[in-house]
Amino acid sequence: MTDIEHTAESLSELRRDPLKAALTSAALRGFHISKQFPDNKALITSLDFDISGNKCITTSMDESLRIYDCVQGKREQVLYSKKYGCNLAQFTSQPGCVAYASTKINDTIRYLSYDTNQYIRYFVGHSRQVTSLQRSPVAATVMSAALDGVVNVWDLGSVKPASTVTPACLAAGGVLERGIAAAYDPSGMVVAVAVGSAELQLYDTREITRGPFKSQSIRDVSGHALVAGIQFTPPLGDQLLLAMTDGSCQLLDAFSLQPRAHLIRASAPGSRLNGSRAMGGDALSSMQAAHLGQNVSVTPDGRSVIAGDDLGSILHWSISQPASGHLAEQGTVQLEPSGVWNGSHDGAAGVCAFHPHIMECVTGSQSLAFWTTPS
């Protein structure tokens, strides 16, 4: 696909409060690719914006970390982690620094200054591959979950975990088959942990080691699929979005943990969301086939879900009134996409993230695309 120029002036004009600029389905249908970067030699595996929203960072299976200017629409920096691999890169609360998970040699989380391309410290505490990594919205910490069945909260100033949690239903083993994912809510006061296809748990970050204050079985909504990734919907965190290994998404009430809607793909021939359809094998393979949930994002107003599919298309759903969907046989509300964006990737769209402050979305396959509305 050709490189489409988009001026800094026109991108700057798109800046506005997304909570006031109604991101309706009609507005979302107008999104188009304004800039595309065919930089990577392999699939992009993660995507994150910094706190200001001025920059985003990607990791790739080609073992590169690439930083882009989201306002100017240009690539700024390329770093490599050839020895250890890289995934789930997160900007931290410290300017010029990122944390990312290793994918080979060991399971260490590496804390890097991208200004100097030097490691600040290593967070050693997992014995299996990291499946979730997220910075705290309010503190100088990052949280990780891994296939050793452990959730760690790391203080950026220390090499040892500030807190460690082993979800009770994993204490007896089975995590390698069941998987684990974790996320902060927007306030940074609550952590949600999804344990395979079995259970969802909520923790108070002020006393996280005391165990969950609420737990709920999710077998009725998960079926045989595992949770590949989990996120709270902005701005209030009143809903939870689970990206499943069968390619579907489940929307739950974040307080009661009861299901609200099941996001499905319209039954167009040959089209489906990314995700492993083979339920056999280990959890890591299934979760990676579903991109660890990195291909699903929620708009900043919390009213729409954006997701990439395995044909390279970008779909969107309206979730502001989930009861408006149709009921499946088991009584769950099913929501079909509101639309598909005008444009696509040349392969599976494995990462997708809506900008936190402006009318812009970034998606990636082997190339990275910036989507905006007409100026």
UniProtKB/TrEMBL annotation:
InterPro entries linked: Swd2/WDR82 (IPR037867), WD40/YVTN_repeat-like_dom_sf (IPR015943), WD40_repeat_CS (IPR019775), WD40_repeat_dom_sf (IPR036322), WD40_rpt (IPR001680)
Localization, UniProt: Nucleus
UniProt similarity note: Belongs to the WD repeat SWD2 family.
UniProt WD repeat ranges: 123-164
Keywords: Nucleus, Repeat, WD repeat
Claim: Transferase is one of the keywords in the record: no
Record's protein name: Uncharacterized protein
GO MF terms, alphabetically ordered: chromatin binding
One GO term (biological process): RNA metabolic process
GO cellular component, one term: Set1C/COMPASS complex
